[in-house]
Amino acid sequence: MTMTDKVYPAAKQAAANGSTAGPNPAFPATKGQLYGATRPAYRPTPNRKRSRRGCFCACCLWTTIVILTLIFLAAVAGIVVYLLYRPHRPDFDVTGLKISSLNLTAGNQLATNINLNITARNPNKKAVFTYNPIAISVTTEKDGIAVGNGVIPSFVHGTKNTTVLKASITSTGQNYQLDDVAAGKLKSDLKGKNGVALKLKLDTKVKAKLGALKSPKVMIRVTCDGIRAMVPSGKKATTGSVSNAKCKLNSSKNKNLVLCHHRLFGVSFMVPCHLS
Fold this sequence. Notes:
By secondary structure, the protein is α+β, with helices and mostly antiparallel strands. It is built from four helices and 14 strands.
C-alpha cells in the first residue's frame, strides 16, 4: 500500500474482522427480514365449537319433531279408538242387604254382621275390565260412624256381562271401639223406626282392555247411599232397604278418562280412551 492510498475506518474494521462488507440492507425492512424467511405461513384452525353446537341444535330439532309426531299419532289413535269402541263405564248397584247383627255390646264395642250383594254391569261390547280386590267400608250416612268392612275378591268383568258380587261386612279391631259421643249417636240411629241409613265405599284398581289396547290400572271409588238397615230384634236376620240405593263411580284423576297402552310402528305410548 502506497502512501497515496487512503484507509477508511470502516475498511479497517472489516479487515480486522476478516470479512468483507456486503451491500447495505434495504430500508424499511421487509416482512421476511423482520419475521424470518423460514417462518411457516399462518393457517387458522377450524372452529370445532360451532360444529358441535350445530349438531346439538340439529339433534334437538329432530327430537322435538319426533315427539310432536308421536303426540299427534297418539291423539289420532285415541279418536279412532273412541269412534270404533265408544267405551262406557261399568255400573254398580246394591241389590241385597241382610243384617244378622248390628248393635253395641258392653264397653261400646260395635258388633256387625251384614251380608251384602252388589251387582256389577259391563255394558260394553268390546271392553273387558279386570278388577283388583275391592275393599268395602260401611259407615252411617248421617254421622260417618264406621260400621264394618269387607273385601270382594279380584275378578274379570267380561263384555256385556252382569256379575253379582257378594261380601260379608263385619266389625273387628280397635276401630270399632266407639267413644261415648259416637256410641250415643249410633244408639239413637238404631232406635229409629226406619232403621239406620248406611253409606258404602268400594275402593279398588281396575284396568281396561279394548281389543288390542290395554290401559294401566286406575284407582276408582264407588260410593253408594240411600241404604237403610233394620236392626234385628232376635236371632233372625232382617232385610235392609235398597230400593232407593244409588251408586256413583269416580276415578282418582278423571272420571271419564282411561289411558290405553298401544304400540304403533314399534313405539309404545298411551292413548286416551274416554269412558262416557
